Amino acid sequence: MSAPRIAIPIPTSNNDEYNARALPQYKQAIERAGGEPVEVPLTLSPQEVAQLVSSCQGVLLPGSPNDLNPHKYGEEPRSETTAADSKREDVDELLIQDAHNLHKPMLCICAGVQAVNVWRNGSLHQHVPAVSANVNHAPGRTITNAHTVELAPTSLLAEIHAHTNAAAGNIAEVNSSHHQALHHVGDGLQVTARSAADGIIEAVESTNPDHFLLGVQWHPERLEDDFSRGIFSRFVQEAAAWKPRTIKESIG
User: Tell me: the pLDDT tens digits for 99-150?
Assistant: First the structure.
C-alpha cells in the first residue's frame, strides 16, 4: 500500500531562511509517520493548487512568521501584528476548502490552526501578551518545554496522549513560539486544550466525528517525544484510511 500523500504549503512567500529551516521539519515528521509530504508552492494558480491537492489524502497547514490579515475577522491590525502573506493565505484557503468539502484529514499547526479558525468564522487575539501576562507563549524554537497544556478528557488529543504518556494524565508539556492565539472559536470547532496557567486556547478539533481535523498552537514537528510523534502518526493513519466522498455526500 502506497504512503498517503500529505499536501504542505510552503510556509511563507517572503522568508526563504524560515522556509529552509522550518519546512524540512514538517516533511521529516510526516515521513517518520509513514506519509509522503507534497510541497505546495505559493506561486501556483488556483487551478494548479486544486490539481495538486486532488492527488493528496491529507492536508497539513504549517506555521509561518507572518500574521493573518485581521480584516478577515473584522479587526484593524494592532501595532504588534506583522504583515500578512496574501499568497500563503490564498493557498491555505484553497486547501482548507478542499479538505472541508471532501472531509480530508487535516493537521493545522500554529499559524495553520489560526488560519482554519478564521476561515470558519472565528477570530484571533492579535497579541497574546495584551490578554495574558502569566505565560510566555513565545520563548522561541530552542525551548522545548515552554508550558503545560490541559487536554479535554474526551478529546482526540487526550486519547493520543494516553497512548504515549498515560502517567501524565491530561497534562502535557509543549513548546511554544507564537504571539497570537485563537479568541472566538470558529464554526464546527471545539476547544480541546488550553494553557494550564492562563486558559489561552492551545488546540481545537472538529465537532464532526466523521472528519479528522486537529489544530495545535504549539510545534510538535520540532519535538522528538512520543506525544508529538503520536500526533503525526494518528494524522497519517487517518489520511491512509481516507476515502473520497461521493458527489451526493459532498454537496451541502
Answer: 999 999 999 999 999 999 999 999 999 999 999 888 899 888 888 999 999 9
- Residue 40 has phi, psi (to 5 degrees) of -115, 105
SS3 192: strand
Predicted model pTM: 0.94
CB-based contacts of 210, cutoff 8 Å, min separation 6: 103
How many angstroms from the chain centroid is the CA of residue 171?
20
Q: Given phi > 0 = left and psi -120 to 50 = alpha, else beta, which region is 213? A: beta
Specify the pairing of strand 171-174 against strand 181-182.
unpaired
Give me the amino acid identity at 8.
I
Q: How far apart are CA 41 and CA 191, in angstroms?
A: 31
**Which grid cell sits at 107?**
493537521
> What distance lies between CA 224 and its chain's CA centroid?
18
Question: What distance in Å separates the CA atoms of residue 58 and residue 103, rounded to the nearest whole number?
Answer: 9
Q: Which three cell numbers stand for residue 221?
A: 514537528
Q: What domains are there in the chain, each with its CATH number?
A: 5-250 (3.40.50.880)
